[in-house]
């Protein structure tokens, strides 16, 4: 989250640039409009660098404007996210973004907002902090969750009060699950052998 003062400055600059580029698609620069956009940017505008916002407006104007609707803060936030994603593919800008993120984390850690060791390099010991990948074991967790659901759905096989219909359906699910597992294992084995 960004502070409200910088969000207001960014909202004013975004609206002015957008109004200059597409006068019919951007709202008038009133204090009320700027305040609303600033509130949205302060709440949802992940602390992007100020240099991102003019490019976000240009990106919105060039690639995202549908020609029918007036621009809103959501569209500009989406454009800013896409601009940052584009910057990540450029080695110079990606390095600059990484340095900026590291600086923000270090400042927040020094202020006590974040626990020690949050930054990629812990200043106290110069060690790298263990920051797990956000989706590192996602596929494995997904398979485990599928197995839990399959097991839960097969409870009718052991339930003495289950109707014959429920048992037949559970048996069919068990066969389908076994068939899928065999196919998955065969694919995994082929990949490992190749």
Chain-averaged pLDDT: 78
Overall structural domain count: 2
Q: What are the secondary-structure elements, in order, as H or E?
A: HHHHHHH
Biggest pleated-sheet summary: none
Q: Give a count of the beta strands, DSSP E runs of length 2 or more.
A: 0
Residues in helices, as a percent range: 55-70%
Please identify the oligomeric state: single chain
Describe the model.
The chain is mainly alpha-helical and 194 residues long. The protein has 2 domains: 4-89, no CATH class; 138-193. The protein has helices at 4-21, 31-44, 52-64, 73-89, 91-110, 138-153, 164-193. The chain is elongated and about 70 Å long.
SSE layout:
Elements: H1 4-21, H2 31-44, H3 52-64, H4 73-89, H5 91-110, H6 138-153, H7 164-193
Quick rundown:
The protein is mostly helical. About 65% of the residues lie in helices and about 0% in strands.
How would you describe this structure in keywords?
single chain; 194 residues; mainly alpha; 2 domains
């Amino acid at each position: 989250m960004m502070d409200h003062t910088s969000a207001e400055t960014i909202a004013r600059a975004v609206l002015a640039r957008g109004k200059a580029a597409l006068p019919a698609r951007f709202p008038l620069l009133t204090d009320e409009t700027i305040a609303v956009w600033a509130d949205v940017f302060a709440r949802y505008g992940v602390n992007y660098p100020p240099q991102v916002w003019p490019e976000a407006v240009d990106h919105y104007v060039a690639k995202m404007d549908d020609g029918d609707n007036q621009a809103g803060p959501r569209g500009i936030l989406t454009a800013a996210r896409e601009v940052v994603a584009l910057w990540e593919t450029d080695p110079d800008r990606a390095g600059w973004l990484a340095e900026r993120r590291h600086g923000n984390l270090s400042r927040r850690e020094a202020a006590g907002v974040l626990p020690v060791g949050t930054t990629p390099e812990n200043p106290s010991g110069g060690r790298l902090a263990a920051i797990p990948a956000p989706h590192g074991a996602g596929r494995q967790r997904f398979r485990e969750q599928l197995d839990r659901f399959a097991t839960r759905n097969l409870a009718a096989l052991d339930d003495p009060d289950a109707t014959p219909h429920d048992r037949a359906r559970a048996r069919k699910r068990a066969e389908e699950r076994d068939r899928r597992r065999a196919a998955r294992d065969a694919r995994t084995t082929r990949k490992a052998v190749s």
